[in-house]
């Protein structure tokens, strides 16, 4: 298996070595549940543009966010490394160290122009104020995208209202920053749908890159449907029979329209055949059960946001590249946000400058239909809980639960007693990963004597005495 992966990786690199480097668009929703899109079976929420993207590309039916909450997933998304390697334990904690090699730094080095639009959530954007107050330690955790290799950025530190995002409770000490400059909350360009506000900045960035003849990386992290959830009047009319739930449904449809807008712009610019687009969510839906404006669903997966069961981490996902990826297909291979970095590095011919551990893998052979299983297991940590997805099986510690995901969609049948050797092997792998994470967190990967670890390491995965 390992030899096959190496050969296919080399073939993938050769395939794109002589071609123009692809434009890359990476879109992510916020708190969108596995069952919250038409392409995953939702019959209420209208997502025609995402559904069309599914028809034009690959539906990734077993795709994992890096964590069951926001900030850690975003770290895995940009680095290909588990968030515990650099101290982003949970949401609104720590920051992305400058020593990390990210998608932006990797691609910028190869001649890409880079842009980040929407939510950031990987550090503060001001050294004095933070949307989370003084406890967020804004000076210590100052790590804005304009200091993390992005040429253009239009971002907020954390969540905003999904309609009129410059206003409301979420806007306090949480302005939009455009290339490092805070916008006035009354700026008229911040009125309306939060997704449209963000894409209004992403589209000109792409247009300018094409005009300049440069390949681009455009990271678009939508705010919807994270709280505060509000839909505009036209969207509420679409779902008026659903009461408060209309706000949830409406803000997702508004996001969907902007996905369609981005894809239409790619087509208009004549670059669709050389543009790879991914879409996913950062974790499962908010709330213990669907209620009021929290209407996210998981298609029967157990758990929700903040859970390591699949309802908290398994998310809707798509990949689309006309002429390179087969349209109208599905992949049920376990994949992860950890895989973006190594996959895009492979496609663009990037060589790592050091031997730091990468936890994701190049999934191009899987997307291209050349492989039907992954090589690396996928680790998760939330609080003291740890889980590992290895092929069809998933182990959760310290609970000691093992599930066969190929037969147990809802993780209801603990088969640990029937597979003691598998439990032991996966437990050893978890222990080895945790030790590796701890070593990385201490700075061993950086060769930087001035590096100070982000936060204090905490041992996880053991039963509390």
UniProtKB/TrEMBL annotation:
Q: Residues of the signal sequence?
A: 1-19
Q: Which GO terms describe its molecular function?
A: arylsulfatase activity; metal ion binding
InterPro entries, A to Z: Alkaline_phosphatase_core_sf, Sulfatase, Sulfatase_CS, Sulfatase_N
Q: Which domain of life is it from?
A: Bacteria
Q: Which family does it belong to?
A: Belongs to the sulfatase family.
Domain Sulfatase N-terminal per the UniProt entry, residue ranges: 22-350
Could you tell me which residues belong to the region Disordered? 442-465
What is the protein's name according to its record? Arylsulfatase
Species assigned in the record: Pontiella desulfatans
Keywords of the record = Calcium, Hydrolase, Metal-binding, Signal
Name the Pfam families on file.
Answer: Sulfatase
